[in-house]
Specification:
Helices cover about 5% and strands about 45% of the residues. It is mainly beta. The protein folds into five domains: about 160 residues; about 80 residues, Immunoglobulin-like (Sandwich), CATH 2.60.40; about 100 residues, Immunoglobulin-like (Sandwich), CATH 2.60.40; about 90 residues, no CATH class; about 220 residues, no CATH class. The strands form 13 sheets. It has a twelve-stranded mixed β-sheet with strand order 28-27-24-23-22-21-20-35-32-31-30-29, with helices on one face. Strands 1, 53, 54, 55, 56, 57, 58, 59, 60, 61 and 62 form an eleven-stranded antiparallel β-sheet that branches. A hairpin with an 8-residue loop joins strand 53 and strand 54. It is elongated.
C-alpha cells in the first residue's frame, strides 16, 4: 500500500460533527459491518456420491442449493434431509434447495444400495442380505501377520466404491479393529480369529453403516501381544467409542487392596437395561469414604430426546480421589452430580452442554468399568512388557498359558515375577525404592468370541529377606503380602427388563422438586457493605450478576453449601439452574456477555426472576422477587451515537429540520438510570423520548428551528434525584448545537492539507438511481515527498443528504498508485468511505481505506488512503483511531 501523507494535525481542531458516521479522536467511528451473521452448512455424504453446495454458510432467509453431480454405479439417491426433515428435490431429481434458518444445519445424503457389498484384502467375502442388513458370517482371519488388512467395498459392474473408516460404527463392533493408513485396505482385524461383518444401508451415517463382531478365537494367547489383542478391543478406530462384546449386560467387580498405607475394598455392580438405561452400584469402604453406596445411573429417553445422569461415584486410591468414568463432564470431574441434557439432532448446535444422540447413547453404555478396557488397565502390571526398563528392575518373567474348552471357550493364566535387586548387574534403585519382588497371579476365562467372563487377579509383595533372588522364588514358608486383588464376572445376553430397582437408590432423590424461596440468597459484590440480606429478601446492586452462589459468593458446579435452598436436600442438579426469565428487563435481563447461568442487574427496581434448568428446560422452577438497589450516585448522564454521531460524551450537532436519536448512559455505571430530560428551548428543540429511556430522541423540525441562520446551542437538563452531592443537571447538561438547515455538501471541496494540493471531493446533483441517491467522486492526485507526480486515484460514490445526514457508498474505484497485486483493488466493496462535517470550521472531513481479511491475525486490516490512524499510521486492525482529512468548500 502507498505511503501516507503528513496530514494537518486534527487533534487541535475544535470539531463539531454533522454527518454519517463522523467522528473526532474523542469519539471514534464505529467500524463498518463487513459480514452479516451467518450460520454453517454441514453435509454428511457417503462414498460414491459427489455433490456441489452453493455455499458453506449463509444468512437467515438465504436460499441454499445442493446439487447431486454424480452417483457411482451400485448406488442411487434415496433422500436428502435437512436437520432430519426430508427435502423435496426439484424436477430434475438432483437439485435440493432450502431457506436458511437462524441456526447451523446439517444436510444428510442417503442412498440405496444395489451393488454387491464385499470385503476385500487379506480377507475376502461377499455380504448376503438378511432382512435389511448385509452379513458375511464366520470369516476367518489368519496369516503370519498379527493383523489382517481389508476394506468394505460396493461393486457394480466395473465400478468399485471403497467405504471409508468413518463408516464403521464402533459402538456395535467387537474385536481388535484398527486403521491401517492404507488407501486401498483401510481397516484391520487381529488374526487368529473369526468375524461376522455387517453392513446396514439404513443406518444413520453419523454412526456408520458397517460394524464387525468377533465370534471366535482360534489362536489362543501365549504371548503378551496376543493377550493384548484379546483384551484391548478399542485399539485405534474412532476412539470416541469403546468397543463392546455383543450383548454385554452385567459386570460385578470387587477390589481388595491390603497395602500398608491404605486399605481399599470396593464392590462395583453394573447392569444394562432395555430402553437405553444403565445402572451401577458401588460400595466403597476406603478410609475416606462415608460408607454410603454410590451410584451411576444413565438414561437416554429417545421419545423426549432427553439424557439423564446421576453420578455419585467417587473412589479413593492412594490419597487421591479418582473417578474412572472418564465421560463425566470435566467441570464435574471427581465430583458427585446429576443432570439432564437436551439431545439435539446432528451436531451440538451451540447449546450449552447439549448432546447429540450418538453421544447420549455412548454415555449410557459406558460405565466406570467397561468390559475389557478398564480391567485391562487395572491388571496390566501383570503382563505388560517394559519391566526391564523400569528403575531398579533386575529380573522379570511373564508366563502366559491357555486352556481351550470343547465349546470353544477358553481360559488364560498369567504368572509373572518382577524383582528389584541392587546386587544385579545394571540395576539401580532410585527414590524410595527398596529391594523386593512382586508376584502376579491372574486367572481369566473367555467366551468362544473372546469376551471376558471371569477374572481373578492377585498381586503380592515379598520383602528382600523373604525372597530368593538367585532362584527367583519365595523362600521356604514365605507367602508374601497381598497388596491388590480383583475378582470380576461378566455376563452377556438380552438386556435386563424393566427399570433398575435398588432399596438404596431413588432417582427422584437426585433432582430438585421444589425451592425454599425464603432461604435463597445472592452474593452481592456491590451491596455487601450496604445491605444485610435477611430471610425472604434478595437484594442485588446495579451491575451485579445474578446466579446461585455458595457461601463464599462463588459459582461452582455443585453449590454444596446451599442445600438448604431446595428439596430434596440430596439433589445434585442445582448447578444446572439459572435465571431464564425476568418480568422487568429494565432492572434485570440477560446480556450477551452473561454466562448461561446468570443475568445482570441494570437499574434500581424490582423484578420477578424465574429460575429453571437452563440446560434441558425441564424440572421445577423458582419464581423469586429480586430488588435492585443502587451502589453509587450519578455524576452525569452522557450520550453516544445511535443513528447519529456525537462530538463528545455530552455534545452533538443536529441539523435543523430533522429528528435524531442518541443512546443514553449514566456515570458511574453502578448508579441508577433514572432521569427526566428537559429542553432549555422547547421552541427550538423538543424531546420525545420517555423518562429513563435508554434512547433520547431530539426533534429540531419546528418553524423556529428552521428559521435559524447561525449555529445555536440548546441545553438539555437531565433531571434526577440520584445525583451525588456536587453533581447536578445544571452543572452537567447535554448540549446540542442546531446547525442551520441550508448547509449541504453540494459542490466541490478541496483538501486543506498542503500535502494534498489537487485532491478534491465533488458532490454533484446528478441522480445515481431513483431512490434519491446522487453521484459524487474523489480525485486524489498523489505526489511523493519531492513533489514527483505518482498518479491519480479516483473513487466514485453515491450519496444522500437528508436531515443533515450524509450517507455515502463506494460504487467504483480506479487506483493508479498501488500495485494491483497488493489486493482486490477493483472491488469497491473492499473500500471504506466516510464523511463528517464540522460546523466550527466549515470543513467536511473524509476517510478512505482499503480493507482485507488477514488469516494470520484472524481479523480485517485497514489501509488508510485518505486520512490515517494517527501519527501517519497507515495500517490498523480496526477503525477505533481513524483520523479524517479536512476539506473546505471551493469558492464559487
Amino acid at each position: 500500500m502507498k505511503k501516507s501523507r503528513l496530514l494537518v494535525a486534527l487533534l487541535a481542531l475544535p470539531l463539531v460533527v454533522v454527518g454519517c458516521g463522523g467522528s473526532n479522536p474523542d469519539v471514534p467511528p464505529e467500524p463498518p459491518v463487513i459480514e452479516p451473521d451467518t450460520y454453517k452448512i454441514m453435509v454428511t455424504c457417503p462414498e460414491g456420491v459427489n455433490y456441489t453446495l452453493s455455499k458453506d454458510e449463509a444468512e437467515v432467509g438465504e436460499t441454499v442449493t445442493l446439487v447431486i453431480d454424480s452417483v457411482n454405479e451400485g448406488f442411487s439417491i434415496k433422500e436428502v434431509t435437512l436437520n432430519n426433515s426430508v427435502i423435496t428435490p426439484a424436477a430434475d431429481n438432483k437439485t435440493y434447495s432450502f431457506t436458511m434458518p437462524d441456526r447451523s444445519v446439517r444436510l444428510v445424503i442417503k442412498v440405496d444400495v444395489s451393488g454387491d457389498v464385499v470385503i476385500v484384502g487379506d480377507l475376502a467375502a461377499k455380504l448376503v442380505k438378511e432382512g435389511n442388513i448385509y452379513v458375511a458370517r464366520n470369516v476367518v482371519a489368519n496369516g503370519s501377520n498379527a493383523t489382517a488388512k481389508f476394506a468394505y467395498q460396493v461393486k457394480s459392474g466395473d465400478t468399485v466404491t471403497t467405504l471409508g473408516v468413518l463408516d464403521l460404527d464402533e459402538s456395535k463392533s467387537f474385536g481388535t479393529i484398527g486403521m491401517t493408513g492404507d488407501k486401498t485396505y483401510n481397516l484391520s482385524v487381529g488374526t487368529g480369529c473369526t468375524y461376522d461383518f455387517y453392513f446396514d444401508p439404513e443406518a444413520n451415517l453419523e454412526y456408520g453403516r458397517c460394524y464387525i463382531q468377533r465370534v471366535g478365537v482360534s489362536a489362543y494367547p501365549t504371548t503378551v501381544p496376543s493377550l493384548e489383542s484379546i483384551l484391548i478391543t478399542n485399539r485405534t478406530v474412532r476412539s470416541e467409542y469403546a468397543v463392546y462384546p455383543l450383548g454385554y449386560k452385567h459386570a460385578h467387580y470387587v477390589i481388595g487392596d491390603n497395602s500398608t498405607t491404605d486399605t481399599v475394598y470396593l464392590t462395583y455392580d453394573y447392569k444394562m437395561y432395555e430402553n437405553n438405561v444403565s445402572f451401577a452400584k458401588v460400595l466403597d469402604n476406603t478410609p475416606m469414604s462415608d460408607k454410603d453406596p454410590m451410584f451411576v445411573y444413565k438414561q437416554y429417553d429417545a421419545t423426549n430426546k432427553l439424557y439423564t445422569v446421576v453420578d455419585t461415584f467417587e473412589k479413593y486410591q492412594g490419597k487421591k480421589l479418582i473417578n474412572d468414568d472418564y465421560y463425566r463432564p470435566s467441570y464435574n470431574n471427581n465430583t458427585v452430580y446429576s443432570a439432564k441434557f437436551n439431545v439435539v439432532e446432528g451436531d451440538d448446535w451451540g447449546q450449552a452442554y447439549a448432546l447429540n444422540e450418538k453421544n447420549a447413547l455412548r454415555n449410557v453404555r459406558t460405565s466406570a468399568h467397561q468390559p475389557h478396557y478398564f480391567v485391562e488397565r487395572d491388571i496390566m502390571d501383570a503382563y505388560r512388557n517394559g519391566f526391564g526398563s523400569d528403575n531398579g528392575v533386575s529380573y522379570q518373567n511373564i508366563d502366559i498359558k491357555n486352556t481351550p474348552n470343547a465349546d470353544g471357550s477358553f481360559a488364560v493364566t498369567i504368572d509373572t515375577i518382577k524383582e528389584i535387586n541392587t546386587g544385579s548387574t545394571g540395576s539401580s534403585i532410585t527414590g524410595d525404592q527398596v529391594e523386593c519382588a512382586y508376584v502376579y497371579d491372574v486367572d481369566m476365562t473367555f467366551t468362544k468370541a473372546g469376551a471376558l467372563t471371569s477374572l481373578e487377579y492377585k498381586e503380592k509383595l515379598f520383602d528382600a529377606d523373604k525372597w530368593d533372588f538367585v532362584n527367583h522364588e519365595a523362600k521356604t514358608g514365605q507367602k508374601g503380602t497381598t497388596i491388590k486383588n480383583i475378582s470380576a464376572i461378566y455376563e452377556y445376553g438380552d438386556y435386563y427388563t424393566g427399570a433398575p430397582s435398588d432399596p438404596d437408590f431413588n432417582l427422584n432423590d437426585y433432582f430438585i422438586t421444589s425451592f425454599n424461596a425464603d432461604k435463597v440468597q445472592f452474593f452481592n459484590s456491590n451491596l455487601k457493605d450496604r445491605h444485610d440480606v435477611t430471610s425472604g429478601e434478595s437484594f442485588v446492586g446495579i451491575k451485579d450478576r445474578i446466579y446461585f452462589v455458595d457461601d463464599n459468593g462463588e459459582y461452582n458446579a455443585n453449590l454444596v453449601n446451599k442445600k438448604s435452598i431446595f428439596e430434596p436436600a440430596t439433589a445434585l442438579d442445582l448447578w444446572q439452574y439459572g435465571p431464564t426469565a425476568s418480568t422487568n428487563e429494565n432492572a434485570i435481563s440477560k446480556l450477551d456477555t452473561d454466562s448461561y447461568y446468570q443475568m445482570t442487574a441494570h437499574d434500581i427496581g424490582k423484578s420477578t426472576l424465574t429460575f429453571t434448568n437452563h440446560v434441558a428446560g425441564t424440572g421445577t422452577s423458582l419464581n423469586l422477587d429480586v430488588t435492585v438497589d443502587y451502589v453509587t450516585l450519578a455524576w452525569y448522564f452522557w450520550i453516544k451515537e445511535y443513528d447519529y454521531p456525537v462530538t463528545s460524551r455530552d455534545t452533538a450537532d443536529v441539523k435543523a429540520g430533522g429528528t435524531y436519536t442518541f443512546e443514553v448512559g449514566v456515570h458511574r455505571d453502578t448508579s441508577p438510570f433514572i432521569y427526566h430530560a428537559v429542553s432549555e428551548r422547547p421552541d427550538l428543540l423538543t424531546i420525545t423520548s420517555e423518562d429513563n429511556s435508554r434512547y433520547l430522541t431530539i426533534n429540531v423540525s419546528s418553524a423556529a428551528a428552521m428559521a435559524l441562520t447561525t449555529n445555536t446551542n440548546v441545553k438539555v437538563f437531565m433531571n434526577s434525584d440520584y445525583y451525588e452531592d456536587g453533581f447536578t443537571a445544571e452543572r452537567s447538561p447535554l448540549i446540542f448545537t442546531i446547525i442551520p438547515a441550508d448547509v449541504d455538501p453540494t459542490g466541490t471541496w478541496n483538501a486543506v492539507s498542503p500535502d494534498m494540493p489537487k485532491t478534491k471531493i465533488v458532490f454533484s446533483e446528478e441522480a445515481y438511481d431513483d431512490k434519491g441517491n446522487k453521484k459524487g467522486y474523489v480525485i486524489d492526485e498523489y505526489y511523493d515527498s519531492k513533489g514527483q507526480y505518482l498518479g491519480t486515484d479516483r473513487y466514485d460514490f453515491y450519496y444522500q443528504f437528508k436531515n443533515g445526514q450524509l450517507s455515502a457508498t463506494m460504487y467504483a474505484v480506479d487506483i493508479e498508485t498501488i500495485d494491483p497485486s497488493e489486493g482486490d483493488l477493483d472491488n469497491p466493496k473492499s473500500f471504506v468511505i466516510d464523511f463528517f462535517y464540522s460546523s466550527s470550521t466549515n470543513y467536511y472531513y473524509l476517510f478512505i481505506a482499503y480493507f482485507e481479511y488477514v488469516p494470520d491475525y484472524e481479523s480485517y486490516w485497514y489501509y488508510a488512503l485518505i486520512g490515517d490512524f494517527g501519527d501517519n499510521v497507515v495500517e490498523a486492525y480496526d477503525l477505533d483511531n481513524a483520523r479524517y482529512s479536512p476539506f473546505e468548500k471551493k469558492a464559487a
